[in-house]
Amino acid sequence: MQEQGYLVSGRKCSSKWSSLLRHYKSIKDHNAISENNPEKWACYESLDEILSEKPYIKPVSVASSDDNREKTPEADMTEKTPKKRKSQTDVVLEYLKESRAERRELQEKKIKALSGTDNLMERYVSLCEKKLKLDKGKFSDSF
Question: Which residue blocks in 34-87 are alpha helix, DSSP H?
Fold first, then answer.
């Protein structure tokens, strides 16, 4: 190209070609989707003649998870309905309900444990009172 008077590097040529391909593909994709409002470009027809059958523009086959078969009513019945994704609010509410239930359980366990200690405390107090009565009787007998 330099012999013909073009002062362009290989990198700049490659960049320009990539840019042309990218623009061509975007117009081709747009026109394939939107037939009512096709985009136009001066170089489109020329590039379309050259590139339209190239595998990187029009792939031989496309791998897809989309099932293009016609669906029968029986097939529709067997398909599962997709689960709705929980919103963030639902997740937070569920967490709060679970934590509230856990706190209630812990409080009930503490109450049960403390009610057992109440009986122990009552027994301890009654034993102390008996001991005091005994000690008073011993103390008064010695004088």
Answer: 44-51, 73-78
Which range has the worst mean pLDDT, 1-5, 115-119, 128-132? 115-119
C-alpha distances in Å from residue 21, one per residue of 31, 34, 35, 131, 137: 15, 20, 21, 102, 112
CA distances from 132 to 120, 121, 140, 143 (A): 18, 16, 12, 17
Q: What is the pTM of this model?
A: 0.40
Query: Which amino acid appears at position 41 of this protein?
Result: W
Q: Spell out a b/e string for 59-80, using b for 16 or more CB atoms within 10 Å of the CB, else e.
A: eeeeeeeeeeeeeeeeeeeeee
Phi-psi region of 9 (alpha: psi -120 to 50; beta: other; left: phi over 0): beta
* Cα gap 95→84, rounded to integer Å: 18
Task: Judge whether 44 and 32 are in contact, CB under 8 Å.
Answer: no
pLDDT the model gives residue 99: 93
Q: Please tell me the distance from the alpha carbon of residue 43 to that of residue 22, in angstroms, as a whole number.
A: 13
What's the start-to-end Cα distance of the chain, in Å? 132
